[in-house]
TrEMBL record:
It catalyses: a uridine in RNA = a pseudouridine in RNA. Keywords: Isomerase, RNA-binding. The keyword Acyltransferase does not apply. Residues 20-77 form the RNA-binding S4 domain. Coiled coil: none annotated. The active site is at residue 148. Residues 51-84 are annotated as: Disordered. Its EC number is 5.4.99.-. One of its GO terms (molecular function) is rRNA pseudouridine synthase activity. Pfam families: PseudoU_synth_2 (PF00849), S4 (PF01479). This is Pseudouridine synthase.
Length: 331
């Protein structure tokens, strides 16, 4: 019987996954898939990278697409919900989230709670919605970086393979700037500075989280406090100079300033008694990057999500006052 083509996944290599061997990329996303089965799928051409046959030791690059054929449920990254059909309401919401669109680049203000990529736990993703937005006859947009499901803000996609490769390079270049806003449950030790703490994955129970490790990967975050309340709630501007998983969340928790509602990294301290945050307060506010076609600087700004806008109003923070406040690269 022919394989169920509807179960084929197309996943995009993330910005932080460049130079991973393809077999290690699969190990990250499909930890229960046996190597022998992966090797067979590669030999028979069922796994492809950017539409081409691939080998286990091939190095993947940000923005490339990996075709993943139907796998046994036990081989994936867990059971659970499968992708749902894209509804008209989904299409409308996605169109309303678009910040910029041209033949090379598509940028959206990703909502809180929407996954960047599809997977066995994921009902809806930016990947699927972007594909539905451009239609079946157009080239599928490719994510060139990712945001956590619970992080909102500027998310960049490339409309072509060439644009994806160029944007992947440009995002690493000097002059590219990613600015995040966070509301934290406590103030950092200093009003501005740098958090340079190596990070590695730590297994806790059935899950994983990032944490300090002497032999972990180098991770650097610049921060500056924009405002604070008398009881110590702070509004921070953040620039991640490296792209580690959960970097901003882990770094802020490490210095005693966990992001509001980040129970994974802040525990109970992420939920101050006098306010009732129920969603993570981390937002990719701005992105400046060279356009892949002509090199001009593309500047994108994402309005705050509703839950953060409500918190700003409750705390008396004015979003208009924050865009000129940036961490110093020499901090």
């Amino acid at each position: 019987m022919a394989a169920d083509v509807s179960a084929v996944e197309t996943r995009t290599v993330g910005e932080d996954e460049g130079e991973l061997r393809l077999d290690r990329w699969f190990k990250r996303h499909y930890p229960k898939l046996p190597y022998g089965q992966l090797a067979k799928l590669l030999r028979t051409g069922q796994v492809r990278v950017d539409g081409r046959r691939a080998k286990p030791n091939q190095r993947v690059q940000p923005g490339q697409t990996v075709r993943v054929p139907p796998l046994p449920q036990s081989s994936g990254d867990g059971g659970g919900a499968t992708a749902q059909p894209v509804t008209e309401a989904d299409r409308t919401a996605f169109a309303q989230a678009i910040l910029y669109d041209d033949p090379d680049v598509l940028a959206i203000n990703k909502p809180h709670g929407l996954a960047s990529q599809g997977g066995t736990h994921v009902q809806r993703s930016v990947d699927a919605l972007a594909a539905a937005h451009v239609g079946a006859d157009a080239e599928r947009p490719r994510l060139v970086h990712r945001l956590d499901k619970d992080t909102s803000g500027v998310l960049l996609l490339a409309r072509t393979a060439g644009a994806a490769a160029k944007l992947g390079e440009n995002l690493k270049a000097e002059g590219t700037e990613k600015v995040y806003w966070a509301i934290t449950a406590a103030r950092p030790p200093r009003r501005h500075g740098r958090i340079e703490v190596p990070l590695a994955k730590r297994k806790r129970g059935g899950g994983e989280k990032m944490g300090y490790a002497e032999d972990g990967k180098h991770a650097l975050t610049l921060y500056r406090e924009i405002a604070h309340t008398p009881d110590g709630i702070a509004w921070l501007a953040l620039i991640p100079k490296t792209g580690r998983t959960h970097q901003l969340r882990a770094h802020l928790a490490h210095v005693g300033a966990p992001i509001l509602a980040d129970g994974k990294y802040g525990g109970r301290s992420a939920y101050p008694e006098h306010i009732l945050p129920d969603k993570l307060h981390l937002h990719a506010r701005r992105l400046a990057v060279a356009h892949p076609a002509d090199g001009t600087t593309l500047r994108l700004t994402a309005p705050l999500p509703e839950h953060m806008a409500e918190t700003f109003e409750q705390l008396g923070f004015d979003p208009a006052a924050g865009d000129d406040v940036l961490p110093h690269h020499q901090a």
